[in-house]
What does this fold into?
Amino acid sequence: MCLDIQSGTLDFEYNTSDWIKSRPAVDDNNVYVASMDGEVSKLELTKKGYKERWKKKIGEHFIYGELELKDDNLLFADSDLYAYCLNTKDGKIKWRHSVIKSFMIDDYRVLTDQIAGGAYYESKPTAAQGKVFIGTPSGFVYAVDAETGEEKWKFEVGGAISGAPVIDGNKVYIGTEGGEEDFYCLDVNTGNLIWKQLVSWVWGSANVSDGLVYVPGVDGYVYCLEGETGAIVWRYRTERSTCSEP
It folds into this structure.
């Protein structure tokens, strides 16, 4: 549904074929929506409500994570451990990239990597500097070419990834869950480790401002780290686990 930002009154409703868990993406006068059954739609906002521009059935697998827009690309991942890039103009698939090692037997996909924390794929892809950065439940961070999906590098971390990779200059920041309690800083071009800092499991995405990295911890602390070194500047104790982006 769409509500008026000033009054909270209902502007329109749009019925999808299944529940919606991922946050819609918005650009100019368009809204992009993904439902749990793998269907993605583009709605153009009008004075009378909306006009459906296209609707695509991507597959039979759940879409849990948020949608990401970058130029004419709509990026997301599904529970079959594929990352997708759709053309926003017509909804056609530009590329898809498997984020776990697998092979096919009689049209059935067999996964060969160990999945940490199950196959619930909730990490949102992040597009920056001509690349798309993807965190996976199998414990890898991938960088792929934004236009072709060609893999540029990958780095193995110590647990599953639920939050979105955060890009700041030449650095990629990412936390993990279900394994080690380290927070990672990687080189944006090579994927090499710059530093890692012991904090806590991290379910949500970090945030960066003025050279400082703010990390939500499952242990109930919000951590402030030096972006260059990973040193802990301060931490603040909350009442419960912190899962949202600071």
Notes: The chain is about 0% helix and 50% strand. The chain has one domain: 2-237.
